[in-house]
Amino acid sequence: MSILARLIVLVLLALAPTIAAHGVNDILLYREREQEVREAALATAVIRNAELDGIVRGIQHVLGPVSRLRPITSLDAPLCRSALSALAQDYPYEDLVLAATDLAGTVVCASSSNLASVHLGDRTFFRSTIRNRQFTVGEYVQSRVTGGKAIAFG
Known about the structure:
Helix content: 55-70%
Largest sheet: 2 strands, antiparallel
Shape: rod-shaped
Low-confidence stretches: none
Order of helices and strands: HHHEEHEE
Number of strands: 4
CATH architecture of one domain: 2-Layer Sandwich
Number of helices: 4
Strand order of the largest sheet: 1-2
């Protein structure tokens, strides 16, 4: 083995611990950053969950009294529509639609345009609400009312 080859081997042997230390440091730094990202994601998820809980509680507090209003319980379409339209105007959400259905799930009146042809009887949230007679949060679905993605409440 030539002197140059021996010198290269000697230098590589001398640098091996340094290279190994850098490799270990990179791995530890990667794990630390990964843990920080997980903790940040968890903190964000906790905040978003609290916001969603507040929204759901708010909707629940609105739907309870609304479901007992005389224009709604009578299912008198013109009175019901005007009552729901007036209520919807009190909320800043442009995609909020309040609707009342008969027990079969056919929309009788709604806060937006005439939706009498819309049928919700096959939706999980509707069946659960009718069966349990209590507030229900539906699944994330494509709305038959607006055509966009929505979460229905009953």
